[in-house]
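Board notes (copied after class):
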Amino acid sequence: MYIHLGDNFVVPSKEVVMILDRQSSKASTIVAEFLEKQKDKMVQLANGEAKSIIITLDNIYFSPLSSSTLKKRAQIAFDIDH
């Protein structure tokens, strides 16, 4: 199953490692350090401010969709796969 991340972009649900709220992640020095080290893997899907960060096995996506919306989509994909 796939999860739509916004901007007509989808990823296989089995590749999603974590979905983070962008605002909450800004307060974390650990997340900031991780993102700094992974700059070459970042993909910007949001034209404006990103609402969420999706970490996959290969890339890090900044999405215009909220983390709660993506969580619901991930749960649907998980339920279908199992």
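Comment from the instructor: The mean pLDDT is 91. The two ends are 10 Å apart (CA to CA).
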